[in-house]
């Protein structure tokens, strides 16, 4: 049986809080990469959110987009996140790697699986560091790539999840919190434990 390949698209939120809240969000897809990218683009357009980042779009449009994603069965299990509190800015990279490693462990079906990881704003220097750290976590057969939200719909989807989680943590009685809880109940969103 040939080894499978999974794609991980990573974005973070919370650097501006200086570590009070730090969220790592990851879009995970396998053989349905093109289908999920196309669905994401369609929902971005129909919601009016477009290719804007979470903070760059209006509340109504971004919540409409999330609502559409949560209700769409094609996104079942695609969205994963880890949330950390009270960490120092110097630890952001370590926590990002930890979130990636735990997500890969949770979603891969066999150790021989290949993981293609696209990280928003990843530098060449950090690419090597992240690779070494992932191997220390027992994650091999991983290939890291720099990505931008402008060019990758699934990085924008991860950005949306990170923004949603931040908003939900900031305001537990908000529509963002209700949508996050709905996604967790339906399995569209998965919280990767620490």
Give an overview in words.
The chain has 194 residues and is α/β, with parallel strands linked by helices. It has a single domain, classed as Nucleotidyltransferase, domain 5 (2-Layer Sandwich). It is 45% helix and 21% strand. It contains 6 helices and 6 strands; from the N terminus they run ββααβαβαβααβ. It has helices spanning 33-47, 59-71, 92-107, 124-136, 153-170, 175-186; strands at 5-13, 21-29, 79-85, 114-120, 142-147, 189-191. Strands 5-4-1-2-3-6 form a 6-stranded mixed sheet, sandwiched between helices. α4 links the parallel β4 (114-120) and β5 (142-147). α1 packs antiparallel against α2 (59-71) and α5 packs across α6. It is globular, with a radius of gyration of 16 Å. The model has no long low-confidence stretch (mean pLDDT 89).
Question: What does the secondary structure layout of this molecule look like, with pairings?
Answer:
Blueprint: E1 5-13, E2 21-29, H1 33-47, H2 59-71, E3 79-85, H3 92-107, E4 114-120, H4 124-136, E5 142-147, H5 153-170, H6 175-186, E6 189-191
